[in-house]
Amino acid sequence: MAAPPTPQAETAxxxxxxxxxxxxxxxxxxxxxxxxxxxxxxxxxxxxxxGENGAGKSTLIKVxxxxxxxxxxxxxxxxxxxxxxxxxxxxRAGISTVYQEVNLCSNISVAxxxxxGREPRRFGLIHWSALRQRARELLTELDLDLDxxxxxxxxxxxxxxxxxxxxxxxxxxxVLVLDEPTSSLDREEVAQLFTLVRRLRDRGVAILxxxxxxxxxxxxxxxxxxxxxxxxxGEYPIExxxxxxxxxxxxxxxxxxxxxxxxxxxxxxxxxxxxxxFLRARQLTRTGFxxxxxLDIRPGEVIGLAGLLGSGRTEAARLLFGADxxxxxxxxxxxxxxxxxxxxxxxxxxxxxxxxxxKSEGLVGELTVRENIVLALQAAxxxxxxxxxxxxxxxxxxxxxxxxxxxxxxxxxxxxxSGGNQQKVLLARWLLTDPRLLILDEPTRGIDIGAKAEIQKxxxxxxxxxxxxxxxxxxxxxxxxxSHRIAVLRDHRMVATLTNxxxxxxERILATIATGAHS
Length: 519
Known about the structure:
By secondary structure, this protein is α/β, with parallel strands linked by helices. The chain contains 19 helices and 22 strands.
């Protein structure tokens, strides 16, 4: 782990951090979210907080801003120890946060949003002219020209972000935490936001910037702190990193591997599929979520989607299933143009989708294993043609045995099963519909190595039997092991499609993710 370096380009007065965190530990039931994490923020810098999903970024922010108390560790603001019981105490100490979802009131004016709760008053009533004048002064100080009298709802999301930042800075100008502020902005709006961020930095505000966009880190940040699996991986001046080394440190330089698939399964996965595409996407897009992309998926082919969290992998897949509606582009199945407005349209074309959020978007925890397994088939038949209990029992028993779901108890509530067995129940549900295309979004996340290997072998076997598979995973070794071709995504764009031959390595995929180009 890299030791936190001393900034070189700062004056003696600036070398004292405005915010320090040391040995921060936070545990939730069954999860150690933060394990001895440290962070330093200096006046007049933009500091990136980076890490993959589950690295601990959100938990650290919540500890720093008083949402969660730390179990262990110390927080210092201006060199003085602080303990925050709630966000208001953190705000009073000089720490303000602007979240991805703008937390303002769109039905009132810009001026009211900036000064809400701090309105100037005269004779006990709001002094409206003074309120508007103060709002104009705050905007002018940051070289922003906005009509403060109109409702916030008339402005774009980017302008609403700017208003949220102005409000946060007026409340406290020591530390500003920006949590994914650009995730829903286009490039021009990001440039507008960054102009304001640089002005605040030049005024001496310390800015903690959380993002999954690599370009933005190198565009605006001075230093980077990287978390991995709840621990501090290191703190670096931005000039010491390249996009490739940043990605490697986020994911882990060694890219931990699972036990290899059996020789038989590996051979099955390495065979190349051919023939006409079962599904073809051309310039398919959803504004703000995924830029136009092309993709062909053939019978018996496993297509891997690789990219960092937030790169657009899930968004691209959801368009193919009708879970989200495309704004533009064309989708065809077996040469016939289709329009999937709902998942039911996709299911009718024998397309299945296992969501990465198996608890919130997949399984129904209060239902039994049997009821969960037959759910999709029953929905496809329509509720006017119910499956008999005897048929449900037969189907459930078949897939419990086929996938070795444990315990082998059809009437057990699915919420009591382990993560790996819950994932098998979800797979059984969709395999029961006999899909031609199976979309798997992080099917092995959060399950043990044995269950992962079983699911990987199942994917390889399905492909060998002619099923097309779209496979999404954050584990590059897993994608490489199973896929015939790999589509690489970065910043909501599909930047490359690689044929999985001997030239494709984790390092090559990392380089493609980092640079957005073939390496």
